[in-house]
Amino acid sequence: MTPTTPTPAAEPDEFMSLLTKDECDALYAAGRKRRWERGATVMTEGDTSDWVLVLTSGRVKVSSYTAGGNEVVLAIRGPGALLGEMSFISGEPRSGTVTALEAVEGVIVRDFSGYLREHGRVAVLLLQIVVGRLRDSDRKRVEYGAFDTTGRVATRLVELAERFGEPTNGGVRVALPLSQDELAGWTGASREAVSKALRTLRDRGLIETGRRRVVIYDLEGLRKRAR
């Protein structure tokens, strides 16, 4: 069966964008809908749970905490993402906490094993998703060692622009409820270092920042700084 055009709600390359309409319908039918308000905890690191979540609207952050209590943001996920799959596959406790960055909705699926048994192609796609995330994790570890803070901040802003950006006058606007503290946790830097990096990028005319928003005026220039 050839995959159909992904639903508008699913981001490109996210789990649900890879499924056929029949596969999507069957997965939704196997679960139940749930909504979380901004700031709510969707999943908690260390919990043992038997369900996965398909995100249908809104964005979340996946994070973990160091022994010193500092938050490390591992990823930002949007519509179409599958969450909790690592714990499902390994049978181990949740490896991260998932928090709603805005009001989000999703479908909780408890019998995910049964769904995969009936849809063997999806099991292969799940393997591809997991491998992709492991590769992304490896890439970020390389960034931490090879890039300075400004380079890492530029890299994350490019990612946000490519995934969530909206064209605006002379640039790309990224409206995401992500604080500087969270951006610091995503780049492995202090809040002060991130603030300095943003100021450097502003001074170069690459970006403009406001309350929980960034306008990127020179995306190619930002890509070059990221490299």
Automatic annotation (TrEMBL):
GO terms for cellular component: cytosol. InterPro entries: cNMP-bd_dom, cNMP-bd_dom_sf, Env_Response_Regulators, HTH_CRP, RmlC-like_jellyroll, WH-like_DNA-bd_sf, WH_DNA-bd_sf. CDD domains: CAP_ED (cd00038). Signal peptide: none annotated. Keywords: DNA-binding, Transcription, Transcription regulation. The keyword Transcription regulation applies. It comes from the Bacteria. Pfam families: cNMP_binding, HTH_Crp_2. Residues 15-105 form the Cyclic nucleotide-binding domain. One of its GO terms (molecular function) is DNA-binding transcription factor activity. The keyword Transcription regulation applies. Residues 147-220 form the HTH crp-type domain. PANTHER family: CRP FAMILY TRANSCRIPTIONAL REGULATORY PROTEIN, DNA-BINDING TRANSCRIPTIONAL DUAL REGULATOR CRP. This is Crp/Fnr family transcriptional regulator.
